[in-house]
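Re: duplicated header lines in exported structure tokens

Our pipeline writes sequence and tokens for each protein into one text file. With two proteins the header for the second block appears twice in some exports. Here is an export where it did not happen, for reference. First protein block:
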Amino acid sequence: MTDARRALPAVHRLLAEAERAGLTDETPHQLVVKVIREALDDARRAGYESPPDGWLPDIRHRLRAKHALSLIPLVNATGVVLHTNLGRAPLAQAAREAAFRVGGYTTLEYDLGAGERGSRQHHVRKILREVTGAEDALVVTNAAAATVLALNTLAEGGETIVSRGELVEIGGAFRIPAILEKSGTVLVEVGTTNRTRVRDYTGAISPNTRCTLKVHRSNFTLSGFVSEASLEELVAAMQPRGVPVVNDVGSGLLVDLSEFGLQGEPLVRDCVAAGAVVVCSGDKLLGGPQAGLILGREELVSRMGRNPLARALRPGKTVLAALEATLSLYRDRGTALREIPTLAMLTVDPNTLTQRAEALASSIEGASTEPGTSTVGGGAFPHAVLPTTLVAVPADHPDRFLARLRQGDPPVIARADEGRVLMDPRTVSEAEMGSIVRVVGEALC
């Protein structure tokens, strides 16, 4: 009886074939040997079966997989503009170029004029003051970090007053009470879920009160028998009592979008003008890289900058470069709406979307167009309805079809509905249209 194990080739034989095929020219010898051993081990587990396409193609495929990066670009055809799982806000071209330029040595913490150490915050502080009206500004890694740093600086060891109606859960199951706990402050709940008045806040002030936190409910709304203290009312009541107000506004909206039917998100400049310490995201409605912005009175923000946590939470040079370039676009409203992808996608004319959809559908076999709606995403404008025109491709097995699209080069992320795969041109750039046609065509085949 023949031993099935003898049917497997020896390592040295496969290595010689790999060398003749040139697989070792650009790949370390040890890595090729490791991949060969993995291929043989998999064959043994599969009952000593050779790879369907042969040993050499299998080894080549495994080597490519070893070299492949997992963080790669893709096409977002879902119509969700700020898609949390897909990296939220795509960067403006100016921001991409700025991040690329600082890949080598830079002026990150070097003052060219003085010839000595400088501050990395210097690169964004001036432009943040300009576009938000804040006395001072500080940038950290993300919005949650900004909230932690603000509360730890202002209220560690003391109490922070929060409305029960604002004890929200944000993405990734992170909850405001847990963030307060990690900040080292004690949560004091006031009011009820649906109604909280100024007197609820002032009535909760004690000798241990250090701060008041007001949180914008960005990913849901309360309606009906509800009321809440406005930020202006809260600051007016708390400042004479020496209690700073931290306002977590979430998305970081810098321009008014109400003319496009997008209402309900606070403008950062208005919150700063009210006198609060404002914390917000850089990679949501602001349209920049992931970052947390802290904006407010110079004395308070300066204290946060001296907190040891500020060093642990500081952003890197590529983030600061991309953020500076993004913020510079806000010097002109028209430029911001046109050049910042997030704003451009939210404000694009519906007729333009119809034209894009029809052009895309005409290039895909069996595709058609139909009216639909897009989503802002990122916990912003939760009830906004953005009319769009969808491209629908019939599919007997939509989930399998979506899986084939995800294996494309580049991967295309779409959605399924009632036996069709739907693609929304709102979140697809002109440069990506050709890639969609090719990847969908390959998937159909």
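Second protein block, exported in the same file:
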Amino acid sequence: MIGKDIAIKVENVSKYYRIGYKEETKDTILGTITDFIKSPLKNYRTYRSLYKFDDIDKIIGMDSEDNNSNILVASNNISFEVKQGEVVGIIGRNGSGKSTLLKILSRITHPNKGRITVRGRISSLLEVGTGFHPQLTGRENVYLNGTILGMRKQEIDKKFDEIVEFSGVEKFLDTPVKRYSSGMKVRLAFSVAAHLEPEILLIDEVLAVGDAEFQKKCLKKMEGVGQKGRTVVFVSHNMSAVTRLCPRVILMDNGTVLEDGQSDQVVNTYLSAGSGSKAHRSWEDPETAPGNEVVRLRSCSV
């Protein structure tokens, strides 16, 4: 059981994947026939290995350079809580486990270890435009996509005009989507998803779509969602959007939570962590530093 003020509780969640491998091909007819006879047993062992991780304890905590195993640790013993009405950002470099965590929360995939408890109806914006059919018109795709995202027909009818107005593609609403530009398609897809009214909303990089004007529109819409008291978990590489939307931020790396706290502090930790790979030059002696008698350059970084 979780407290009445808790919307999401993640307890010691871990998720592993088995990386695929290239199958060996036989050079002789005899080898091919032998391999064909053995294939049912071989296929069963391969299938079983995808869901059995007996060797996982050996590689947990091992440095990635020394790890020769074909197991990928996408999430490793993650625990945190999100209160009702809280807007939480999740940041980290590519491959740190952010999207995997959202897919686990959305029940698209299940964790190998741990437990997740959710209170309230949950909707996710993980892949904007998923479910759009190119042969159908924009109007038909609004109803199709809304249904896939969990909206009832009555809800779509009620919000249809708002969705179309927000997207800005009302002129082409009865045109097949296959004739839309990629930007038009994304606008309509996000408009449908943005008008969901769940208690919990999971968002993954959807503010990276469309032109600058539409991104501002999306950001304002997301701010409105948070102000209405809904719980939001927001994944993005746009640090300005994260600090603007999220009072609290979780920093992830290699499938683990590195830091959890106020957005400004955590974002600063994330940005400063990559300083070792940046270009840097400093001048300790003012006499040799570039400049003049008024001002001289002490150091610079890119």
